[in-house]
Write a structure and sequence with these properties.
globular; alpha+beta; 25% strand; 3 helices; 16% helix
């Protein structure tokens, strides 16, 4: 296990940040407590529902779990990404995971 994994694991071995939907199921929240977003590391923009990128995290597409966000991010034409929890009430972020997308199209392959 690497240090990144150790930071996100409980003593039971389960990823403690994998899914916070249990809070909603138990009616402990009346508003979205945290939104799971994909952040483009190069531009610091967030993926929207329409597949575009925005600087405003409130316009970002919310994912139900970090694994779903990571799967989607790996299909995007970006070099690297972060999976972040965004707390809208305080506009704070918690970085949870990171990885590589499909990558950008190579300059030689683009036509003008």
């Amino acid at each position: 296990m690497n240090m990144s994994d150790a930071c996100h694991r409980s003593t039971g071995g389960k990823n403690i940040f994998e899914d916070l939907s249990w809070l909603v199921r138990r009616n402990q929240l009346d508003y979205p407590f945290m939104n799971i977003l994909i952040e483009n590391c190069d531009t610091l923009e967030y993926l929207t529902e329409a597949g575009q990128w925005t600087k405003n995290p409130r316009d970002g597409k919310c994912f139900p779990a970090t694994k779903a966000a990571a799967r989607a991010a790996k299909c995007e034409a970006i070099a690297t990404f972060n999976i972040v929890y965004h707390i809208p009430v305080t506009n704070q972020f918690v970085n949870l995971d990171h990885g590589r997308g499909r990558g950008l199209a190579e300059e030689g392959g683009l036509q003008s």
